[in-house]
């Protein structure tokens, strides 16, 4: 349950707060306009940086897991279930 709440908080910070910031960025002063194309590209760029960072962490974790728990690892020991053959 904690992980779901934490994930929801992270998504809220990443998506909703910048969107509200851009929606309210025009301000009350006349003559200042918001270029939506630039803001959309900026938001897309930020999300892609986050996506690539998360992807790199996940890929690195998977590579580490495969390398760590390979069968030819000299430190690999069979579990008690593998030794006795009881599944």
How does this model look, in words?
The chain is mainly α and 87 residues long. It has a domain at 2-26 and 36-68. Helices cover 69% and strands 0% of the residues. It is elongated and about 80 Å long.
**Radius of gyration in whole Å, from Cα?**
24 Å
Give the rounded overall mean pLDDT.
81
Number of helices, counting only DSSP H or I runs of 4 residues or more = 3
Strand content: under 5%
Distance between the termini: 31 Å
Q: What letter string, H or E per element, gives the SSE order? A: HHH
Outline the biggest β-sheet.
none
What structural class do the secondary elements suggest? Answer: mainly alpha
**Count of DSSP strands:** 0
Which overall shape is indicated by the principal axes computed on the Cα atoms?
elongated
| Helical content class | 55-70%
* Sequence stretches where pLDDT stays below 50 over 5 or more residues: none
What's a quick, concise take on this entry?
This protein has 87 residues and is an all-alpha fold. It is 69% helix and 0% strand.
How is the topology of this model organized?
Blueprint: H1 2-23, H2 36-68, H3 80-84
List keywords for this structure.
about 70% helix; about 90 residues; mainly alpha; elongated
């Amino acid at each position: 349950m904690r992980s779901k709440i934490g994930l929801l908080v992270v998504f809220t910070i990443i998506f909703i707060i910048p969107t509200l910031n851009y929606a309210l960025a025009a301000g009350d002063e006349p003559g200042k306009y918001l270029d939506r194309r630039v803001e959309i590209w900026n938001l897309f760029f930020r999300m892609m940086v986050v996506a690539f960072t998360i992807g790199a962490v996940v890929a690195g974790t998977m590579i580490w897991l495969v390398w760590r728990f390979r069968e030819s690892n000299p430190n690999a020991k069979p579990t008690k279930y593998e030794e006795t053959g009881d599944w």
